[in-house]
Amino acid sequence: MLNPDIKLIFRNDKTEEVFLKNTFTNVLSSMSEGEFEILENYANTQNIEKTIDNFREKYDIDKDFMLSLIQKAEEIDILLTEDYQNKKRIKKSKEKYSPITIYLIGFLNKISQYLHLRTTFIFRGNIRFFKIFTIDLHNTTLEKFSVSKIGQKLLISLFWFTLFTVIIALFFSSFEKLTLDYIYDLSPPKSLFSFILILFGLILSTFFHEFGHYLLYRKHGGQTSEMGLALVLGFLPFIYVSTNSLYLWDNKRTRMLVTAAGILVDLVLTLAVLLLYLNLPSFIALFFLYFLLIRIAFNIMPFIPATDGYFLLTEIVSNPSLFSDAGLSFNKVFICLKKRQFNEISRKDLSYTLYLLMSYLFITAYYTSMSLIIIVPFLIRKF
Q1: pLDDT confidence of residue 136
Q2: Does residue 246 share a domain with residue 178?
């Protein structure tokens, strides 16, 4: 069978190659479109002779070719061997989940079945980014609408209409409700409904941000249709989409446009929430305004890896591995200083070392701010 963790992330029409990514190990592999088409057919038929017959008129293949292709696919985990599948079944049968996890999986599974969504539960990661589940958007209404020309034009037109409308409305608005005296008099929410509303708003805001990336990614030929839910720092819900093949694209301007899409969406959301607060002031609106401003501020920072600002900087300097290269330069500078080999240190090493130090400074500030993002607004009356 085909490995369910293998996703098609890019199709190069010029070379007729497909690029595949193992979403579990993050290993990237490539092969010809014809080879992948043959493997998909073999995974369904589980019969070499039938697969050869199915492609006899299209490709010049024989049994030796099939055996070689199958061996190659098993070596890079595109095809799963029977032994591997048996080991996976045994391992899965021994896995033990807490009652809360089992209940959560069951609850989410019922929702996905009701909505006819193909959901894969992951429950792995770390405190920084813990993945809960992913949804395969292939053939869903959201994907069909996003890839259709009408849908793309409608959504992009809606974006610009919203932006200009909000800017004009803000131009005629009074900003006196942003004073500290006014903010001080706002009462934090105490009802369960208010907290549920805040949680839903956090998820919805990250969905809009990621959907901005997804829309332009699919508009310009991206293949991946996957969206997931994760927890940032263990408690902040975060929607994410996969744009794995972006760095394989030839057009630098398009890559930067897809990367900047989330920032532009956040900008419109922030202005819209500001307009909402000025006309219907509430603690919840103020909280989301605060949250969005913090997110934009750190997301455009080029010193924090995995942010949109970082990816834009890597495009500008044409170095997709900027942070790791900065780490190597730092080690080199440290060793050269220790051995007093000052002539071995280049300007590039110094600039990369400075970048790394700035990165760690901003990373520390980021985690501190995100940890306090929930606490500070609720303590605002005490300041």
Answers
A1: 78
A2: yes
